[in-house]
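Service request form, structural biology core

Requester: graduate student, group of Dr. S.
Request type: structure prediction, single chain
Budget code: on file
Notes: please return the result as structure tokens.

Sequence provided:
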Amino acid sequence: MTPAERLHKLEQALQQAGSLRLRDAAALLGVSEMTVRRDLARGDGKLSYLGGHIVSAQSLQGGAHYSLAQEKDHFAQAKKRASQKALALIHEHDVIFIDCGTTLVHLARLIPDDLALTVVCYSLNTAEILKHKRALRLIVLGGTYMPSSDSFSGQEALGALDQISFDTAFISAGGVDEQTGISCWNLHEKDIKRRAMQRAKRRYLVVDSSKLGVRRHIHFADVNQFDAVLTEQS
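Core staff response, request fulfilled:
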């Protein structure tokens, strides 16, 4: 198989999977990981290697359009109302996971100062709010800082998640579509979202209604993997 044929086969695989780990791509093609990376470097730019994953350049371009500063005020009241519904599902002494993004920042603000909880998060803006809650035990996942979402990512974060079991995971998303599932803007969030969901007894998707019927580039879950979808409307 020529380099061009290998790249074409990867493109076809990405149309189904969205992204591929380097080792999985190498196994698919029957070559070494170094050969795959060499093919990507010499290719036409349609595929890229990022954080241990192979993705299409189109996916990266889509993620680049996400602006944390702009999203912060987008549908702010709707995000707050959705987060109020999430707050009602939290009980004293729970261990919870709060995902990154601008919606769940509202949940962090709504948590009462005297509510005894253990909260795990991986975004700086959420941690900055939670660190002032006197009764709360805060665990911030480490790793490589990702400015696009003001959060951390990498094997350090995934390894830490493997040591924790959650009562509830509150997950955010950039798109919710009945047919294509739940998606986000940033590739680096995918594995952390999935691992947190795996480690939780209960999983809730918290989004404002502007996300419904929308599809972003990075698929990370299906609707039926959540106990409920919480919006300002439901």
